[in-house]
Amino acid sequence: MGESNWPQAEPYRIKVVEPIRRLSRSEREQALDRAGLNPFLLKSDEVFIDLLTDSGTGAMSDNQWAGMMVGDESYAGSRNYYNLEKAVRDIFGYPFFLPTHQGRGAENVLFPLLIEKNKYVPGNMHFDTTKAHIEMAGGRGVNLVRQEAYDLNSEYPFKGDMDIEALVNFIEEKGKEQISFILMTITCNSGGGQPVSLGNMQKVREIANKYALPLFLDAARFSENAYFVKKREQGQAEKSIGEIIREFFCLADGCTISAKKDGLVNIGGLLAFAEGQEELFQQARERLVPLEGFVTYGGLAGRDMEAMARGLYEVQEEAYLAQRVGQVERLGKKLIAAGVPIQKPVGGHAVFVDGKTWLSHIPQEQFPSQALSIELYLESGVRAVEVGTILAGRHPETGENIMPDLDLLRLTVPRRTYTDNHMDFVVEAFRRLDARREKIKGVRFAYEPKILRHFTARFARA
Ligand SMILES: *Cc1c(COP(=O)(O)O)cnc(C)c1O
């Protein structure tokens, strides 16, 4: 067998453990009743394995924790700021950078500088807070991802790619003066953590050049994306992860990053700009102070910036990425083997279960994936999150429930936090649910908030 075909073992050993406990079935029932059948409202102590999100939920390394101890908490000019600046320059090749408290902080600083009222921001597929910040700045977000992204069964390797023809048509139809900027999200979070190919990014750059439009990256999962490029894209296998990252960022004018993902930290973000963007950087710098804090801390402690600087280097290690992406893929494959329909191919940070298909006896008006999240918790103590009809909300004009094509349950895997045994436990939960699948009932709202209803809604069984 030689050097290949080894089972995937975690490329780290565990130095600190955080005990977790699974409540008894009757305790879980009580907890869920108190939470109004909404897993979002559970206390984390009531959850055994928490797959709600991969944002800020990962484990830091000993090297990052050591960095926390050398935090320089000076108000201005902290040494950790300069370490982070060096990391940003080394890794992304960007000379101008600002720390922010998380990704949306960077969006809030940048977007009003680029967006004019009612103008468009085309992208592959915008993340929720990103779309919200585009709209708060008066703009209009448009998703132009390839059609394959909407087909759960398509094995297309780069389902995060922009539909180039659709982008050109959109710009031609609206007129380039109606476009504020182009935003590429890597990996495409809302599309299932699906990657963008380097070839696609190059084509988007050509279009941005042709129409003289700024091009930015929303790069929360920049390293997972580079790993997929190395593994899947022709001609990229020999490059290092670092080289692929540099090539992506070279093609953009700047980026916003939520460091709670591939920054491998629990809090933090950044805003950075390429060579030639000094003027925009100066404007962003001025906005940073009232919104996030002084330019050398941007809402973070010195120790947070140090942990981020170290995390940005660690996340590029190929052994880390192979295990990270491999763990998510392994979970997906085991679910498929257990007969559970999921989005294919498996994305970088989560497995998306097709709740609408698996519980096809529940009408979409009764929120099949929400019902599944409730039963999953009751069965096992595992928490996952609906990404479907509840999340889609109501139509702003008609007040009707929006019925998205896809009604999914997201199993999001935190970085370096759970072992494959935990993932096997999750698979076993689905096997047990399968045995009583047809008896699972849908749900209705018992209380429905007007906005962002998924966070605080309460439910009753239909
Ligand atoms: C998480 C995320 C954001 C927002 O970042 P926060 O750190 O949660 O504020 C923006 N874009 C993408 C693609 C994300 O995944």
The pLDDT mean sits at: 96
> What global shape is seen?
globular
The CA-CA distance between the termini, in Å, is 54 Å
CATH architecture label of the largest domain: 3-Layer(aba) Sandwich
How much β-strand is present in the residues? 5-15%
Helix percentage range: 40-55%
Query: Using DSSP, what is the number of strands?
Result: 14
Spatial arrangement of strands, main beta sheet: 2-8-7-6-5
Give an overview in words.
The chain is an alpha/beta fold. It has 2 domains: 12-47 and 322-461, Aspartate Aminotransferase, domain 1 (Alpha-Beta Complex), CATH 3.90.1150.10; 62-314, Aspartate Aminotransferase, domain 2 (3-Layer(aba) Sandwich), CATH 3.40.640.10. Helices cover 40% and strands 12% of the residues. The chain is built from 17 helices and 14 strands. It has helices spanning 25-34, 62-68, 79-92, 103-114, 128-136, 164-174, 198-210, 222-232, 241-250, 278-291, 302-314, 318-337, 355-358, 368-380, 389-392, 420-435, 453-456, and strands at residues 49-50, 96-100, 120-123, 140-143, 182-185, 215-218, 254-258, 269-273, 350-354, 382-383, 385-387, 408-412, 443-447, 458-461. The radius of gyration is 22 Å and the shape is globular.
Short description:
The chain has a five-stranded mixed β-sheet with strand order 2-8-7-6-5, with helices on both faces. With 462 residues, it is an alpha/beta fold. It contains 17 helices and 14 strands.
Fold blueprint:
Elements: H1 25-34, E1 49-50, H2 62-68, H3 79-92, E2 96-100, H4 103-114, E3 120-123, H5 128-136, E4 140-143, H6 164-174, E5 182-185, H7 198-210, E6 215-218, H8 222-232, H9 241-250, E7 254-258, E8 269-273, H10 278-291, H11 302-314, H12 318-337, E9 350-354, H13 355-358, H14 368-380, E10 382-383, E11 385-387, H15 389-392, E12 408-412, H16 420-435, E13 443-447, H17 453-456, E14 458-461
Bound molecules: pyridoxal-5'-phosphate.
Pyridoxal-5'-phosphate (PLP) binds at residues 55, 102-104, 127, 129-130, 185, 189, 218, 220, 258, 260-261, 269.
